[in-house]
Every structure is written in structure tokens, then in C-alpha cells.
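Thread: quick sanity check before group meeting

JM: Hey all, I'm pulling together slides for Thursday and realized we never actually wrote out the predicted structure for the chain we discussed last week. Dropping the sequence here so it's in one place. If anyone has concerns about the input, flag it before I start.
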Amino acid sequence: MRSFAAAAALLLAAAAPAAPPPANPVHMNQLGFLPGAPQRAIVADPSAAPIPWRLLDASGKVLETGQTVVFGDDAQSGEHVHRIDISAPAGAGYRLEVGGRSGRPFAVSPSLYDRLRGDSLNYFYQTRAGIPIEARFAGGPQWARPAGHPAERAACLSGTDAQGNAWPACDIVRDVTGGWYDAGDQGKYVVNGGISVWTLLNLYERQQALHRPAAFGDRTGRLPETGNGVDDILDEARWELEFFLRMQVPDGTRVRVPVGVKRSRPGLAFTEIDAGGMAWHKVGDEHWTALPTPPHLDRERRILFPPSTGATLNLAAATAQCARIWRTIDPAFAARCLAAAERAFAAARRNPEVYAIAAFTGSGGYGDPDLSDEFYWAAAELFVTTGKPEYGAALEASAWFHTAVAPEFGWPKMATPGTISLALVPNALPAEDKARLRRSLVAAADAFLADEDRTGYRIPYAPAGWPWGSTSSILNRAIFLALAADFSRDPRYRAGVVDAMDFVLGRNPLDRSFVTGTGARPMENPHHRFWTHQLDPRQPGPPPGIISGGPNSTAMGDPVASHLKGRCAPQTCWADDARAFTVNEVAINWNAPLVWVSAWLAERR
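JM (edit): ok, ran it. Output follows.
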């Protein structure tokens, strides 16, 4: 009989990921380059002197020669860095040689991002709840699966939390079918859904406002609704919006929750509130499921978490955006969205301090102690949609409306999406205010470009410590840069977008593409409960077009990344391992900016 130690060692060995293809010393975007855009490569070398390089075409003919530019020691990558800029025309089979080291063959093509654009959106279809995932839309039979949580009815939370608080008994049961699974788990969260829906819909609104070609017109995507006469990106976003509408608390519902408490602690007091119009915070499992556990095999009890002001404002903002987009596409749906948005905003004003603090296992928290930005965001979306003075007054009263430099955004920091909508989408805002808001976005983009001089790999991102989901932070910055390019026509901002995507797709010290199925050395083993071939050969690996959370030097709490702590430069704190949830999970709010930025880069200019 095997000892426990031997069995554990066998399990760890079986779970170890397969080795990727060999790394290449010449680090560049593993898809290639766009014509007319910067073409940059990086080499790590201890030499303090420039190194000769040459660019060869497919026949071996030398097209260009030069010397590297020595950046020097780079704290972000832990390397001594040399930079190279080339200018190859459209074509394929190019190769860059640097000091006798040969890079991979690469192409220069205007269609470089066409496939990634479609693959990244298809992720959202594949993470849908409540519907069978079909091989014809998913890309192959290996990714087909039965519906996860069909006809889902969840009971509201009760019981004792991790802090010893007894949450009041609750007999409410709601139909919460549909929506997107959030990440590697099978929770469904209004808060993280809000930024994800906004990002997809903003891509559509940008193209409408600036008269750009549709990135996802009808019959361009791989999803069941294609062919219905509606842009496929709207069909996908509607799947989550319909779930949001189910998550709104019916009028007349009273619940007992802590009020004014921003973080969980022992000894909570519960107050009965009128929760009508608010949003239930999330739906999640009672306990974390094991890896792997495909959604249709999830047997955990599903729990409906108490309403929160943060979720309510996310619902208000997303459904306000829905109301104006579907106004001419499906007026009845638009009217449902507008009614939901206005009810939610009123409910949030009535209950402004109901924070998400329930300390239970089995799902992500998504608590946010500062909701001033969400109030501003929701007011902005409602003002753009309706032009009503009450929402304009809410904007004027918010400090976020008057900031000179738009702040970065992410699910807990949602002021800038409101500013983008006000600055981009036609609305009743005075022209001088719209121009001021555009300047605040461009000012932020300028600050991000300044970061390129502080990092050897020349990317518009140089934090002292890299956070959880760093790739999405980089791509959200790329959205700022893209809009600055749209507003100003200054090519520096487009170059910054290219630099951001280059890092994500291989121009990094790991020589890895953080996107599945994309590039020579893509991420292959995400932290996920279905795409777990690493852990169970009967399960599939991931489909293409899904982004890893990426390097994380600040919160390395999983069993794999914890062994890297203190031993990796910030840009290298990453592992392609399904067990490494702090560095290699996937999530809807991370893939949404990948859709946005790849679609922006795919536009023919």
C-alpha cells in the first residue's frame, strides 16, 4: 500500500504542467506586426555596448541592419535590456538576428488581429451559464458541454459566517438562470459583470459614435443568436443583461443586512431595509468546488447573496447603457432596461451604505468600501441615456466629474467608464464639459506613455508591484490610449496601444503569450474548472483567445505562486499552471478589454 506522502507526490507529479516550447532570446509580439505601426523587439544581454542586428526576409536577404539601444538594468524584468526598432513592409517569413541569435519567423499583416478579435469574444459564449455549449459555436467537440445550472433557482443567504455572525433566516428564492460564469469558478457576480458588459458595449458605442466599421456585425461571431439581424457583440452582452434583470430585487421586498459597515467583523448588527430595486450581490456555491468540476457537474448548493449598493449601481449603469443602445433595436427590451436602471439608482440613493461584506467561502467577495465612483458612473450613464436634470445634478455634485486626470479603472474603480461615456457618446452635456472630459482622458494617456521610459520592455505600465490581473490593467490602459488616439489623431497613442498588446502577446521577459492559442508559446493551463487538461486528461485544454491574469508580485497566495515569492522580478512572477489562481486565472473583466483592444487594432487604417 502506498504511503500518503508517496500518493501526494504522485498527484503533484501528475498535475505538473507540460513544458512549453523552448523560449527564444529575441522577445517580440508572437503574432507579428501591423503595417505602419511600431515594430519593436527586446533582447536581454549583459553587454553595456550596443549589439549589431539585421533583419532578413523569407529568402535570407538582408533588408535592414542596425545596433541595439541599450536601456540597461531593468528592475521590472530583472534583466539588462537592449531595445530594437525595425521597419519591415507587409509580408511573411521575416527573421530578426541579434548578435548571432535568431528570432522566430514573423509576419507583417493588416489582418494580424482578426482571429484574436473573434476568439476573445467567443470566450463569453463559452462561459455562459444555463445553456448547452455547442461544438459548432465553441470551435470543436472537446469544448462542448451540457448546460451548467439550467433553470437555476437560488435561495438567499443565511447561516453563520467566518467571523461568527449569524445572518438572519431568509426564505426568498429567485430564478437567476443565465449570465456568465465569472472566472475559474462558477460564481455569477453583478459587480464584475458590470465592467465586463460596459467594456463590450462601449466598443460598440465607440464605433457608432466615431463612424467606424462594426467589429462584430451580425453573422461575424460564433454564437446561437447570430443571424438575427443584431450585431453579435450585442447578442453576447444581452445574455448577461438578462441575468442582471433577474438579479433585481422586486418592489416591496424587505431584507435584514448590516448597514454602514464596510468590512466584515464579528458582532455585526442587522437592519431591515426596503430593498426593492436593489440588486442581489451575487450567486455562488456554498463551498469551493474541486478542480476539475465542469459546470454541469457542480453539485454545491447555490446561494443568493444579500443586496449591495455596489451591485445595485453596477446594474443601474449597465442597464442605462442597454436602454439607449437597444432603443431602436428592441424598444421593449430597452424600456425594461431603462425602468430597471432608474429603479436601481433610486434604490441605491435610498440605501447608499449597504456594502458587500458577507464572509462566506465558495465564491469571490467583490466588496468595495468606496462607492462614490459607482454613483458617478451610474449617474453618467443615466444622463447620457435620458438627459434628465436630476442625473446632471448628480454629476455636478461628484468630485469625479471635475478631476483633471481621469483615474485608472477596474471593477472597484468605475469613475472613468462614466467619463468615457460622457466624452464619447452623444448626450446633452455642454460642449465645453465634453471637451474637458476628453482632455482628462488624454492627460491620463500621457501619464501612461511616460511609464514606457521607466521600463526596459517599453510598455505603458510600470507599477512598483504588479497586481492580480495585471494584464487587464495593461489593456485597460490601452483603452485610454486608443481613445486618446481617436480624439487627437496623435500617432504616439496608437504606438502605446501596440506596445501594450506586444507585451501581452510575447514581448516580455518570459517570452510567453498570455493568451491561449495565440503565438508560439501561449498560456495553456488556466485556473479553471472545465479547461483542466493538466489535471485530468479527460478534460479539454482551453479554447483560443482567453487571457491569463498575468504576472502578480503583490498577492502570491496560491500553492504554486507562493514558491516564487521573493524570487522573481515583477514582470516574471507568473506560472502557467492550473493550480496558480493568483497568476493564471481567467475572468470576464480581463477578457473584455482583450476584445476591445484587439478589435481596435484590427480596424484598417
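AS: nice. Residues 1-13 have pLDDT under 50 and may be disordered. The longest strand covers residues 79-86.
JM: adding both to the slides.
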